[in-house]
């Protein structure tokens, strides 16, 4: 081979090497590149072990939803005052158009009581005093196994008056055990309602039903009078 031919052959050889892909120089491979290039195999369990775990998981109950209990709103309890009783309306006595009344006197003052409100008349007898009673309480009189409460009527209607000892009779009020001591019985009379100046309200004298016009005397309201006596108060309410 001539020298020129040999040179030509060497040139073509090197040219062919230049035309091939140049080799990539050695470079450090990064972890990211290594992870991309190298497939990572997923860990797998052996079949018996995997089946056992699945059985255990199947026995675990599903978590229950937690429902919070509703918060009760407690309203403050307001104590209510008991309702006040309705006021007691004073009512006067009811009588027939014409009715009978008994009249009696106490220290010169005349009183009348309808016979329908009269519980009886007794001759005044021995009295037994009781401690702790008002000044106008004269004592207790025994009458047919009944203990009758005797009122010193004069002292009840006139608190400043001294006790009277010469009472003769006891005027019983209704079916109660209370009686008014009196000096003289003045008999009974028929009265017409028109002869009475009736009261329409209690005012300061709830025991007074009205005034008998021609006699200018008080007609007693027995029910109200008994209320005062049982309360232990006199004509002035004390």
UniProtKB/TrEMBL annotation:
SUPFAM superfamilies tied to this protein:
CheW-like
Pfam family of this protein, just one? CheW
Q: Which residues form a coiled coil?
A: none
Q: Where is the CheW-like domain?
A: 98-231
> Which InterPro entries would you find in this protein's record?
CheW-like_dom_sf, CheW-lke_dom, UCP020479_CheW
- Alphabetical list of CDD domains matching this protein: CheW_like (cd00588)
Q: Under which name does UniProt file this protein? A: CheW-like domain-containing protein
